[in-house]
Amino acid sequence: MLLVVLGGGESGVGSAILAKKHGFDIFLSDKGKIKDHYKNVLVDFGINWEDEKHTEADILKADLVVKSPGIPDSAPLIVKLLELGVPVISEIEFASRYTDAMLIGITGSNGKTTTTMLTNHLLSAGGLKVGMAGNIGDSFAQMVAQRDLDYYVLEISSFQLDGIEDFAPHIAIVTNITPDHLDRYDYKFENYIASKFRITMNQTEEDYLIYDYDDPVIAEWLQNNKIHARLLPFSIEKKLEQGAYLEDNKIVITIDKHHFQMSTDTLALEGKHNVKNAMAASTVAQLLKIRKATIRESLENFQGAEHRLEKVLKIQNVHYINDSKATNVNATYYALDSMSTPTVWIVGGQDKGNDYLTLMPLVREKVKAIVCLGWDNAKIIETFGSVVEFIVETTSMEDAVRVSKEVAQPGDSVLLSPACASFDLFLNYQDRGDQFKEQVRKL
């Protein structure tokens, strides 16, 4: 049986390794250049591969195709394969077919990386044999091929969910849903929403769906669609009989007759959104019978995700915070909402059709100066130019950090939270965040 893997990155190479273990004939093809590290792995495993081209004659012979999440279903090669009746699936789907481990799947527009890391941290501290994979860290497929684990905590993007058929996590989390990646969904928000909810489509009454009760998009979808899984909501606005809620600065979780409480004052992560992330992760830990003391200790000592409200340095009593992972307006909303000091805000990049007006109340309340970082800052200047006293344009991280230092006073914070993609000036959001940290350390 010929399995073709499209894409030679972490996901594709992991899929090829798993396929090799299970006796497939494999051909891996990448239209771009495969990194030397991955080429060496493919050679070591004796896997046929090509890069910088797709040889259609070989690819169209496939019995099954595993494609990189970066390749859209509308790509001509994918269209041809589907017309021929060849199944095209994601790595998440493929790997799930070869493990009996319990799967915890986490998706959402924002917060999924932190929630995934926090859930993994709680389960690891509880002594479970757990691996973290998916859209974060190592390839899920390679972990299934090479490790014997009882649990997997998976961060799953909408692109990965588009390629599932039978994938069914025992516990699914939807952190929130706001407009993002609409260019992949015909610019229809409802298509993106439907993609996110594919995470629960194969769940049964024995499974659980944990979700943000306060999110109007999620609430409307659940009202209009039938879900088989048992629902466990979390809320910071309403007291809930089942699930997690906030009361008197305490997280309260109730599942059947089991209860858990913890003060939010001792959470390692700050901000309302991180209270929600903690609720979601703690609900999973409660379901899996992790000791309450372990949950509390783990929430108190957790180190957050890199590039997500990452505290870099405090220089002359000015805090420098790296939130480069905030590639959309909603993520930046959370960042600004968590600020408790006057803020110099570094914003901008490759605009995704952003509507910045939702940030206006927070900008009025918290932002003392705006440093634009990008090739095209017109929309940011138009929106906030009359709201803040100081707004300036820069086209390099060195200039952005230098200007921010000049404007900031003791007691202030400098926040890199771009609300935009990074590809105008940087390789990706990690590169953008790394450059920010490097320039801050040079101050």
From TrEMBL:
Top EC class of this enzyme: ligase
Source species: Galbibacter marinus
Biological classification of the source: Bacteria, Pseudomonadati, Bacteroidota, Flavobacteriia, Flavobacteriales
Keywords from the UniProt entry: ATP-binding, Cell cycle, Cell division, Cell shape, Cell wall biogenesis/degradation, Cytoplasm, Ligase, Nucleotide-binding, Peptidoglycan synthesis
Presence of keyword Transcription: no
GO-annotated molecular function: ATP binding; UDP-N-acetylmuramoylalanine-D-glutamate ligase activity
GO cellular component: cytoplasm
UniProt name for this protein: UDP-N-acetylmuramoylalanine--D-glutamate ligase
Residues covered by the Mur ligase central domain: 106-285
Pathway recorded for this protein: Cell wall biogenesis; peptidoglycan biosynthesis
Function, as annotated: Cell wall formation. Catalyzes the addition of glutamate to the nucleotide precursor UDP-N-acetylmuramoyl-L-alanine (UMA).
